Queue: 2 jobs
Job 1
Amino acid sequence: MKRLMKSAALAVSVSLFATTAFAENIRLTGSGASFPAPIYLTWFKDFSKNTAGVTVDYQSKGSGAGVQDFLNKTVDFAASDSAMKDEEIAKVGEGVQLLPMTAGEIVLAYNLPGNPKGLKLPRDVYSDIFLGKITQWNDPKIVAANPDLKLPATPITVVVRADSSGTTAVFTKHLSAINPAFKEALGEGNTVNWPATDKFIKSPKNDGITATVRQTPGAIGYIEYGFAKLAKVDFAALQNKAGQYVVPNAESGAEALAAVKMPENLVAWLPDPDGAKSYPITSYTWMIFRKDNGNPAKAKAMRDMIEYSLTEGQKIADSMGYIPLPPSVVEQVRKASANIQ
Amino acid sequence: MYRKQSMNTPFDIPDNPDSACRPPSAKDFLVDRIFRGLARIGVALILALVLALIFEIGRKALPGMEKHGLDVLFGTVWDVNQGKYGILPAIWGTLYSAFIALLIAGFFGVSMAIFLTQDFLPAKLAAVFRTIVELLAAIPSVVYGLWGIYVVIPAIRPLTAWLNSELGWIPFFGTSLSGPGLLPAALVLAIMILPTVAAVSQDALASVPMKTKQAAYGLGTTHWEAILKVMVPSAATGIFGSLVLGLGRALGETMALAMLVGNANTLSVSLFAPANTLAALLALNFPEAGPNEVEVLMYAALVLMFITLLVNVLGSLLMLYAQRGNK
Amino acid sequence: MTDLSQPVTALPSLQRRFEGRALRSLVLTSLAWIIAIVASVPLISVLYMLITKGGARLSLEVFTELPPTGFEMGGGFGNAMAGTFVMVGIAAAIAVPVGILAAVFLAELGPDSKLANAARFAAKMLTGLPSILAGVFAYALVVMTTGTYSAPAGGVALAVLMLPIVVLTAEEAMKMVPKIMKDAAYGMGCTRAQVIMKIILPTGLPAILTGVMLAVARAAGETAPLLFTALFSNYWIYHEGSLAVMNPTASLAVLIYNFSGMPFDNQLELAWAASLVLVIIVLLVNIVSRIFGKPKY
């Protein structure tokens, strides 16, 4: 009753237009990462359909924007591929619960005339492309790794993220781990200072990079595997730590996830996973909740949503281009979700 | 209630209590006062809105201005991690794209205005062309953006590739177009401001007195001599005003540019290089900005507001001057 | 080259000069035609793309369904249309009364007062305000204070953009009411309020409506102010029996922006269809306002 009065008072004070109070219908709003957005949106739509009185609305804006919304308290939960920085967590008085909900692989999508499949990129080559050091598709180093492909003498257009992005954070973390020059020049983070040349263009969100790569002959960009698969763009096989060329798929991703143990705080990074079959750029992605929501009904709706994602949700992960969480991690997440009150 | 007055009137006054044909009652005076008060409040609200806009944005920009000073205006690096915020490339891109758009739209807009006002076409056909140009203004910016991505960029790619390979030594063609870039953005921008330039120039030409034109013909000029040597100079201030107003629109345009300009923080004179503009910077970075970045973005918003305000004030003054000149 | 067989006229140089002038006139006239035709190309191209690409996807379904999530097929933008109507409605509810009252003052009550001059100047500056700044303003004013993205926040941002159009066009409309009509009313002893309510507003109504319609058309197409005020939503604003006003709200313009950047054909087709619908709405409003706006006196 108190909650109802509170919300009614809020509605009246907040706006003349809010004539109807939202008594029994709970709407959870979230925003953030575009990397897992397709699978999250599918989960939330199904969950909302199957759960009376609860609607989950998620907006894909980029991880940085999601965390910022969360800090500004304009959303109920957020999603981020780069988890959350300690100093950001410290700003939230209610406490923060990070939960890994799925995992994915970052692929290098490319657009070349004649759509040659099966491009292979060695570790030093793809890091140098994003460093702006390799600028032509027929660079001797690329040709050496791909003797069977006919590579054109066109410049490489590198498509990077315009927004603050967890995908960028994961990708640059990996590049910094494998290439000291990259670490020195650009470092890692949601946004980095990409080389200022006219061959680096910026696009918002995973969607934007995929669309720009598709539109631009000679382009390369980093996106989540599912986007590349569904948008039917070509992607490269990358050389992993063991020196093997690996294509992204559920097996190579699961192999990479198995290489790391999930710690107590549920934040694990795989900047350069071991294992001959591991895909080199694999990462968990997190949902971010407040521990104290001051609203038991909302908190329960959140826990229900998490439970649905952990059970029904994981079943569709593979088909959408994501990696299902390992069973041990599912158990850890389920336990931790009890902290959301 | 209407009361029959002692006044003898020859007119047939309707016996209608709502009629205005009666001396106002005390209630009417009260209504009058309230109404006038409301109107005054309405006017005050406009002023309050402008002040609130400046105050709200200025207040949020102040910490950024104190912290970074002029470094923001002249810095070329935008790196949130290192706390480096420079908007010079965005300012450059805003001005450069707007001026190129103005060059194109100015040429086409003024030509169209001459074509439509100087008796080249039967009135009905002129109206058709006029409507076509006016309808350009009705299409939303975001639709132009979509059209630009899927029509303009593929259409100009072969031409830009040729210009780059053949005339690459000219700085304007110094790089090849990868996709989004300054030229497609400026082209779409030109289309968007064309209606403003054309409409205002038409007004300026139409307001040149008929006598002036007839006097020119009387001196034995050809149609075009009359136009170029008499009509256009007479309407020059108004035409110039139309260009300035078009520039004002181009500077503040957001969505189409955010979708087409490439959002790269580079300083380049090449038409084919990706660039950035202040409005696009705001649209893309504002949603994710932390407190430190918001201060700088508000600073950038203030810079944008200042530039557009300056240009619009100039345009309005020119129009005012042109109107006086014709009286 | 001169033709020697022709008889030499008295003033050959003058005649040649005259021919040059006529030729230049002809060239310039052809050029003017070419320019006019080139200038018509963009509109025709835009409409062609909208009709072929957008028209192909148009069906009843797109008006009733929710936007597709991620990799889903089908779907529509019914909720975005509803959201656009709601937010433009909120904006009009704010901007039209304030705008008309202000215009009354500018046109009738104190046209030359300092207050009026300042307000007129302010309104002119507002018409040139970059729309993104209206969004920044509404974000700071409404989103930050209410703590949520919402339809009213979007409505406030749009109202900022509508207000100057309504004020300036309504002022012009009221000024066009013939002075003799006003004088006749004043002569009969009407109060100013009576003159305004019974003479000026009814007479100027068609032109005032034109201004309102133009403002509505502009607001319906705006994207930038909604990006961080209303955001977007994948659900209807009226959902499961309650009106979700204080929640993120979908709009056609933001849907087009979001989907135009997507690599999936389904979403791209919907972006074109939504563009077609948006342009039809905007053009209809424009055309209706033109019909209304024809001066009848």
Job 2
Amino acid sequence: MKDETIICRCEDVTWGEIRQALEKGYTTLNEIKRITRAGMGRCQGKTCQSILLREIAKYCNKKIEEVDVTTFRPPTKPVKLGTLAGDNDD
Amino acid sequence: MRETDIAIIGGGPAGLSAAIYAASLGAKITLIDDGLELGGQLIKQTHKFFGSEAQFAGIRGIEIAKKLIQEIERCKNIELITNATVTGYYEDEVITIIQGADGNIMKKLKAQRIIVATGASENMLPFINNDLPGVYGAGAVQTLMNLYGVVPGNNVLMVGAGNIGLIVSYQLLQAGIKVEAIVEALPKIGGYLVHASKIRRLGVPIYTSHSLKEVYGTDWVEKAVISKVNKNFEFIPETEKELEVDTICLAVGLSPLSDLLWQAGCQMKYIVELGGYVALRDDHMKSSLDNIYIAGDVAGIEEASSAMLEGKIAGLNAAVSLGYRVDNFLELNINLRKELKELRANPLSEKVKIGLEKALIKREVD
């Protein structure tokens, strides 16, 4: 894959950035996410996570199910602080 | 805080069927959907369904949605919350709902049972310039074309020859748009041959063992480079072919939208035959947690017909688990499972059946 290929389109993270992180020894999804911001944008990894899992598995010579996934926490999509603070619960 | 018997998350074929079934037993239902209207993917499906009469064979997806929505509207014990996303699952079975175009309204809902029928998201392919305007998922193409009557482009390269790729190619042709070619990385066509033949007769080549390598263009897609791939899906040098297209339509599979199930702590497993991580479930569609049921693509990528049946099973069993009664409960369960089995009795479902076996929690016979 060419370095300039976009992997995370929400945060504009390229394969080059992911590859460099892997080569530095960051080989879990959590580390890659924290170092590059891949998966931290609007879609919360719904687009890039499966590509990342596959590429990490390939790089580490593991099966995809052996690569740890990140912890899923609320909210599943960006929510305005005002909405959370306002509590328009009826 | 609002309270309900059963919260159903997702108003596609699975969620709608679950709501109708559970409501018919008397349970109070809250159905939450992120669309402006209910129906999920059905509302863009202009093709007729296969299967048996019980699964609406011969009827177009969009008509099936209308029938289900009419039934929903007749049920007085179903509350609808549309244009709303469930963003979190918290302890004590509370979910948060963010509603409205601006996401300004937050609702909290406590439900005794939750049926997760969130469906799936489309897979993306990593290739050069995959962020150029003109690169679409097949779902987006269907939304533009079949829902809003907007053509996505003039010359399309379809990536993926599964049923979605084949059906959307045919719909593009019907709309008068040129489909230059279909590429499929696997050595054979994944979808029904009846769809593939229809497209081939109209002169569209289907290249198997080929994939999209690169896309070029200044402000939008102008050219695509496809190439042969080996059995490990690696590009074979010097087999490239250039196609003049302005639109790339990606139909390269779906992944279950399982965020809420992870949040809730359901037992999850990566099952490649089902499209990725799914929650383990028993034959009542109950997850490893007693209050959470699943149905449809989130339980494993299949079709709307199977999603509707899984929805019925989840709805029936969730309602009965809350003490709602129906005379012939055991018989209904057996019949629904039988219908599902018959639906999956075709060669294209072989893979799914292997996956489902891996995802099954064996229930103690009661």
